[in-house]
Give the backbone structure.
Amino acid sequence: MMPWLMNRLPAAVVDQARALADAQPDPVSAFVYDLHALRSHVQWLKSFLPQGVELYYAIKANSEPEILETLAPWVDGFEISSGGEIQRVLNCSTRRNFIFSGPGKLDSDLYHALTHQVEMIHVESLDEIRRLNMIAARLNRRQAVLIRINPVLSDHLATKLSMAGAPTPFGIDEQQLAQAVALVEQSENLVLSGFHIHAMSHQLQVERHQQLLDWYLDKWLSWKALASNTQSVRYLNVGGGMGVNYLRPEQFDWPSLCRHLGERLARDRQAPIVRFEPGRFVTAFCGYYLMQVLDMKHSHGQDFAVCRGGTHQFRLPAAQAHDHPVIHVPRRRTADGPSNVGTKRRLTIVGQLCTPKDVLARDVVLSDPVVDDLLVLPLAGAYGYNISHADFLCHPRPLQVYLDAGPLNTHAME
Ligand SMILES: *Cc1c(COP(=O)(O)O)cnc(C)c1O
């Protein structure tokens, strides 16, 4: 059911790629999003959620209006981290609850959030609690908050991108939690609704994520007991962080995680309302970055495909320090199947930037691509375009194309 299969592309994406190349005067670079696949994926995610567990989407993974419009009917809400992201959520035609996390929140953003009925603020420091209380008082509002905790985690629960269990700017150290709880309770315009932990990103191993959730749930009662009035303390936001496997077809086992959590919650009599807020795992699979080959070069024993676009449009492989998968789409099929089924070549795939760091993948074996052919990089729907330094070298921005063609066939390339 995971919509992405190694070396397979939806036929509509292939057709779109060829149509774009045909229509544009210059060779193309573009992001193509399959909204139908996104909708099926979010429905699939929701279908495994245990009773009472909620799914929010962390929009920083991809906050393009079409993506939010597609997700809005299916998610319980949006998680945002800036004033600009509040605006994206407000612009969406389906209004959804939104929650506000992140370090260094501006007063102006907090005002903006409160005047637009933010559901919860995830407070990240003692000073932020004080500031928020003053702003809520000025607006004559009682604001629900979750305290974001940076817990003391054992090593075996960490990943390569840890936001907790280590010195970080995120959340309030667990040792200071009693103080934070007391401060919220003394703040007349704040209501403590529970706790938030977003401890890591890139978790590929479901067993570890299960252990992490178990560990949070083991802690829940002792955290809650820090409050003198526990009635309103009902929510445990467990963040996101489910990883996407960019290099192999096996993906994070979401059904197992949900099954495990469901069994655990059924045993706990005083369980909280659990809320997930993934980003990457929601939108990564629906996006494709398309690059057209501009030049084929041989240098000091290595073959290069120089392509339209580059890491200034799709920084993800550079940010992750990985070789992104690349699928070759010949421009035209000949009468007897795909063209260019000739010699295999081992290539380094680069973009147009004047820096040796503009590499999207090394050691990619393709069937002799030629100038004008298309290369498609899948899994580009999260932390793709929006984390990229698109103005570097003043190249035009890539095209962004949204397909919503109903069930798509896939066909194998290469
Ligand atoms: C980025 C972020 C998320 C989403 O993380 P993913 O790794 O994309 O799932 C969730 N919560 C918070 C607070 C975040 O900053």
The radius of gyration is 23 Å.
